[in-house]
Amino acid sequence: METVLDYLEKYGKYGFEEMPMTEVDSLALCQLSYLKFDGMVPQPEETAVLPAVTLESLKDHPDFEKLFADVRYEKPNRALYEKMIGGKRFRELRLEYYVNVIEEQWETQFSAVTYTLGDGTHYIAYRGTDETIVGWKEDFNMAFLSPVPGQAISVKYLNSVAVKFDGPFYVGGHSKGGNLAVYSAMNCEPALQDRILKIYSMDGPGFRPEVLKDCDYEKIADRVVKILPNSSLVGMIFESGMYFQVVKSKTFGLLQHDPYTWLVTGNHLVRADRLYERRQQMDNNLNEWILSLNEEQLRTFVDTLYQVITASQADNLIDFTAEWKKSINGIIAALKEVDEETVEALKEIVRSLFEITRENRKKQVAAKVETAFERLAGRGKE
User: Fold this and answer.
1) Other CB atoms closer than 10 Å to residue 381's CB: what's the count?
2) Is 20:66 a contact under the CB 8 Å cutoff?
């Protein structure tokens, strides 16, 4: 039952010259990008006058404690940091080109940081959805907008940063960060695209089929490493046409989205045979439902959901869940303000999800009955 933290303790003694990049290294670097580096790691416009900082040197910064402001993962993130600086593999990791943008008006949450590894290669890491409500809204906007603002910014970031250093590099991210990693790699300048070694998407959402086609996903397909836990929901959103690998987690359901629960053996993640069957069927139903709705229906659903949640007056999802009684009161009040036409539209939208689920369930049962009959027929011939 080892995890990324155990891996760092065991293998932190090896430099990248001794043991090349592994998928568990990538998982650690993606999770590291969730730390709040504001005011501690140079921004792109500051790199001309401020040098990159090492991971270990951050410990002496007066704002060090602010790194762990995300209370969801405060304890494991502290452990991650300590394990990473505890060995030579990451102690001298250099960080620069830090960007953190939250624009409520444009429904955008974007953050990225670039690491220089011990062997001289670079890793561009995109942060996944953080605790902000606007970040959550942008995830849902992917259902009908392409690109969402975060995706457009991710391409600009890669194009502007990767020209500042030479040689091959990696791109990666967890959750929405994985989606941004793939999107930026598909759409960056061809000369930069040729330098990319691998693109890591750690339980990152996929793309609508037309996006993969328009962005010529096949150009980078052989370098994409998409990894999902075996009860994935987030990573299976819009999953079509992308090869993925399934790994085991020490927990169940939505909690598997947490990278700290993914199981590690040696220097790699523990593989599972496939996604859980029931979870995969639920994911397929959800994707079929989303793709069956037109843009107006999707926008109505997402905007109303956002309106209802923001009515709770919580600044972020942590406060929203921590003060759930207050949040629920705000939601109830907001629902009363939703006009009748929108309510009827929402009923129709949700009803279509149940109809798709019901029809797929019928097909699934029919297929199992057919298989059973075929087996019986085969026995009769013997």
Assistant:
1) 5
2) no
- The pLDDT profile of the chain, 382 residues, written as one tens digit per residue, is 899 999 999 999 999 999 999 999 999 999 999 999 999 999 998 877 788 999 999 999 999 999 999 877 899 999 999 999 999 999 999 999 999 987 765 557 899 999 999 999 999 999 987 555 665 666 666 656 668 888 999 999 999 999 999 999 999 999 889 999 999 999 999 999 999 999 999 988 888 888 899 999 999 999 999 999 887 665 566 666 678 888 999 988 767 888 999 999 999 999 988 765 555 566 566 656 666 667 677 677 667 766 666 666 665 555 555 555 666 666 666 667 667 766 666 566 556 555 655 665 666 567 666 777 677 676 655 5
DSSP 262: B
Contact indicator for 234, 204 with CB cutoff of 8 Å? yes
Give the DSSP letter of residue 87.
S
Q: Which two tokens stand for residue 115?
A: 């690491």
Residue 89 neighbours by CB under 8 Å, 6+ apart: 8, 11, 12, 13, 14, 15, 16, 19, 25, 118
Tokens of 190: 């061809």
Contacts with 349 (C-beta within 8 Å, 6 or more apart), sequence order: 293, 297, 300, 301
DSSP 34-45: TS--TTTS--GG
